[in-house]
Amino acid sequence: MSDRLFIFDTTLRDGEQVPGCQLNTVEKIQVAKQLELLGVDVIEAGFPVSSPGDFNSVIEISKAVTWPAICALTRAVQRDIDVAAEALQFAKRKRIHTGIGTSDSHIKYKFNSNREEIIERAVAAVKYARKYVDDVEFYAEDAGRTDNEYLARVVEAVIKAGATVVNIPDTTGYCLPSEYGAKIKYLMEHVDGIHNAILSTHCHNDLGMATANTMAGVQNGARQVEVTVNGIGERAGNTSLEEVAMIIKCHNDIDIETNINTQKIYPTSRMVSSLMNMPVQPNKAIVGRNAFAHSSGIHQDGVLKNVQTYEIINPRDVGIDDNSIVLTARSGRAALKNRLSALGVNPTQDKLNEIYDEFLKLADKKKDINDDDILVLAGADRSQHHRIKLEYLQVTSGVGVRSVASLGLSISGEKFEAAASGNGPVDAAIKALKKIINRHMTLKEFTIQAISKGSDDMGKVHMQVEYDNHVYYGFGANTDIIAASVEAYIDCINKFKM
Ligand code: KIV
Ligand code: ZN
């Protein structure tokens, strides 16, 4: 029988730490339920001591999800562990994930400590967590840069103390695949009692090697992988779930299996991207828009003769359905509900009615409504309770003339209007906006993305605006790209602490 590889999803913890990607509890529950359908074994639901929001999300996800184990992160600190245990009270299967930095730089600069004391703290944390739960995972932060001999001592000590899983994070994404694989092999061969626990990979992608390192870990004995949907995560991200799942599925030479229902990969990817406002790069393996697009003549010719000439994955195996762009102005509520459900969104009847009204308005503006449009519409009420709203926007621009914009805002119900000229329509509109919101704020980043292909498409805008030494992230989506830009700027302002 093949060995089983456990999939530990940390989209809602390590993934959600990305600035601008924060989800509210309802959105986290939606993602967690989709992860359950996808078939992950463990959902890392948050770091409960870090904020009341994280604490509450772990509670609510524990109630909403049945099959996967729910995991809560802690430092090797008793109070963190107490709070994690409390947050996990409703989980059917629960795990506490505790740990401490083990590399020399973490020991010296982060903890001002020494190697022996770190082992004592690690052991104490695991023993303390075992008082609450049977399933305790220990992480040796920065294990990638920890020397193997010392790491083996740490791993041996925490397994003796009761750790059921030991996580070997390449926290900085520094290791080469050969080096990371050798580290796992060394631990498998040198740790007494290694078979009483499972070794886990947790690789970051700073040098683009996260998936390669994870697979090297698996090939050398790791039986759990820590991953995120679309590979999201701090800096360059974490190992992406879909890549590992499809490598295992495509490579019969790797005699191992996962519980992932690969046909749920694409809908899960779209849901996470849409809720987190985090675009997927077009050439991203497995889930990027171009992942299965054969554009060169030679490739197209080969694929037409026999699809296997250039395609190692059938797009249907990851849930990409060619017929997914089917909704038009003539589609009814039932068709919309059906498509939403395929994308993992199951609104109440009232919410469905609201989405349907917006759907009809959008269908007036563009012919085909695709999955991304629908997900944007389903999330559109996120701005409904905003204090500042765009009431209207009028822009004139062209070649050889200066752009002029006038706009109206409602701020807590009160109306304001302003006009300005600028170097292009977005500049003019933002200058008019700034005349009303008279604060010192600076646009730091501005990304425009068309959702799919047509000129009538919805445009998505991501923005970062600096105000009072903080950077705020905003998002807007509209068939009018200037309006989407102003909405994204307003989304940032609505988040200002003022
Ligand atoms: O990258 C890392 O080391 C982590 C740990 C907290 C598990 O995310
Ligand atoms: Zn991490």
Automatic annotation (TrEMBL):
<comment type="subunit">
    <text>Homodimer.</text>
</comment>
<dbReference type="Pfam" id="PF00682">
    <property type="entry name" value="HMGL-like"/>
</dbReference>
<keyword id="KW-0963">Cytoplasm</keyword>
<feature type="region of interest" description="Regulatory domain">
    <location>
        <begin position="389"/>
        <end position="498"/>
    </location>
</feature>
<feature type="binding site">
    <location>
        <position position="202"/>
    </location>
    <ligand>
        <name>Mn(2+)</name>
    </ligand>
</feature>
<keyword id="KW-0432">Leucine biosynthesis</keyword>
<keyword id="KW-0028">Amino-acid biosynthesis</keyword>
<feature type="binding site">
    <location>
        <position position="204"/>
    </location>
    <ligand>
        <name>Mn(2+)</name>
    </ligand>
</feature>
<feature type="binding site">
    <location>
        <position position="238"/>
    </location>
    <ligand>
        <name>Mn(2+)</name>
    </ligand>
</feature>
<feature type="domain" description="Pyruvate carboxyltransferase">
    <location>
        <begin position="5"/>
        <end position="266"/>
    </location>
</feature>
<keyword id="KW-0464">Manganese</keyword>
<dbReference type="GO" id="GO:0003985">
    <property type="term" value="F:acetyl-CoA C-acetyltransferase activity"/>
</dbReference>
<dbReference type="Pfam" id="PF22617">
    <property type="entry name" value="HCS_D2"/>
</dbReference>
<keyword id="KW-0479">Metal-binding</keyword>
<keyword id="KW-0100">Branched-chain amino acid biosynthesis</keyword>
<keyword id="KW-0808">Transferase</keyword>
<dbReference type="Pfam" id="PF08502">
    <property type="entry name" value="LeuA_dimer"/>
</dbReference>
<dbReference type="InterPro" id="IPR054691">
    <property type="entry name" value="LeuA/HCS_post-cat"/>
</dbReference>
<dbReference type="GO" id="GO:0030145">
    <property type="term" value="F:manganese ion binding"/>
</dbReference>
<dbReference type="GO" id="GO:0005737">
    <property type="term" value="C:cytoplasm"/>
</dbReference>
<dbReference type="GO" id="GO:0003852">
    <property type="term" value="F:2-isopropylmalate synthase activity"/>
</dbReference>
<feature type="binding site">
    <location>
        <position position="14"/>
    </location>
    <ligand>
        <name>Mn(2+)</name>
    </ligand>
</feature>
<comment type="function">
    <text>Catalyzes the condensation of the acetyl group of acetyl-CoA with 3-methyl-2-oxobutanoate (2-ketoisovalerate) to form 3-carboxy-3-hydroxy-4-methylpentanoate (2-isopropylmalate).</text>
</comment>
<dbReference type="InterPro" id="IPR000891">
    <property type="entry name" value="PYR_CT"/>
</dbReference>
<comment type="similarity">
    <text>Belongs to the alpha-IPM synthase/homocitrate synthase family. LeuA type 1 subfamily.</text>
</comment>
<dbReference type="GO" id="GO:0009098">
    <property type="term" value="P:L-leucine biosynthetic process"/>
</dbReference>
<dbReference type="InterPro" id="IPR036230">
    <property type="entry name" value="LeuA_allosteric_dom_sf"/>
</dbReference>
<protein>
    <recommendedName>
        <fullName>2-isopropylmalate synthase</fullName>
        <ecNumber>2.3.3.13</ecNumber>
    </recommendedName>
</protein>
<dbReference type="InterPro" id="IPR002034">
    <property type="entry name" value="AIPM/Hcit_synth_CS"/>
</dbReference>
<dbReference type="InterPro" id="IPR013709">
    <property type="entry name" value="2-isopropylmalate_synth_dimer"/>
</dbReference>
<dbReference type="InterPro" id="IPR050073">
    <property type="entry name" value="2-IPM_HCS-like"/>
</dbReference>
<dbReference type="InterPro" id="IPR013785">
    <property type="entry name" value="Aldolase_TIM"/>
</dbReference>
<comment type="pathway">
    <text>Amino-acid biosynthesis; L-leucine biosynthesis; L-leucine from 3-methyl-2-oxobutanoate: step 1/4.</text>
</comment>
<dbReference type="InterPro" id="IPR005671">
    <property type="entry name" value="LeuA_bact_synth"/>
</dbReference>
